[in-house]
Amino acid sequence: TFRTEPRPERGDPKTVAPYMARSGGQGRTDMRITTAAAAIWMATGAAALAQPVDLDTYQMRTFSDVVKVCASSDEQAAQFCRGWLVGNGSLYLTLVQAKRIPQWACADPIPSLDEIRRAIVAYGQANPQTGSESAVDGFWRAASSIWPCGKS
Questions:
Q1: Considering all CA atoms of the chain, what is the largest pairwise distance in Å, rounded to the nearest integer?
Q2: Which of 12, 42, 127, 129 is the most exposed place for a label (fewest CB within 10 A)?
Q3: Which residues have CB under 8 Å from 10's CB, separation 6+?
């Protein structure tokens, strides 16, 4: 049960004993129930996360694979796509900052992951000839076409 009175300081026998008497000794029982409920919730959550995944569904070998996964209405596919976009975006940013590659995609303002996802899917559907390119090459070709950098 929910109690509005403040809980006594730990180890102070003058305040702990009256509190336990007023609560009917339920303080420890409440904590055990809460702990057990949390353990059950965590165990069932971990079991849900441990469900087997068909690895062929998420093979990002070609740009058409990227378009297919990112176009899916399935939330698991959308989450995978977002993660793939973040990974490739991080690689690109790191290489640009290290001056290993020139900047070729310049979105301003920076779009959300879902805006990027929709734009990449639209580009891939409008340019099916890019589907056989590697996933990363096709993605960056699309990004450089959608968000080109101006001449400096």
A1: 80
A2: 129
A3: 16
pLDDT tens track, the chain, 152 positions: 444 445 555 554 554 444 444 444 444 444 554 444 444 444 444 444 445 556 677 889 999 999 999 999 999 999 999 999 999 999 999 999 999 999 999 999 999 999 999 999 999 999 999 999 999 999 999 999 999 998 54
Amino acid at 127: N
End-to-end CA distance of the chain: 67
Q: Among 109, 34, 114, which residue's Cα sits nearest to residue 70?
A: 114
Helix ranges (H only) for the chain are 13-22, 26-49, 63-71, 75-97, 113-126, 135-146
What is the pTM (predicted TM-score) of this model? Answer: 0.63
Which of 2, 13, 143 is closest to 66 using CA atoms? 143
Distance CA 89, CA 77 (A): 18
Rounded Cα–Cα distance for residues 63 and 139 (Å): 6
Can you tell me the distance from the alpha carbon of 141 to that of 75, in angstroms, rounded to the nearest whole number? 26
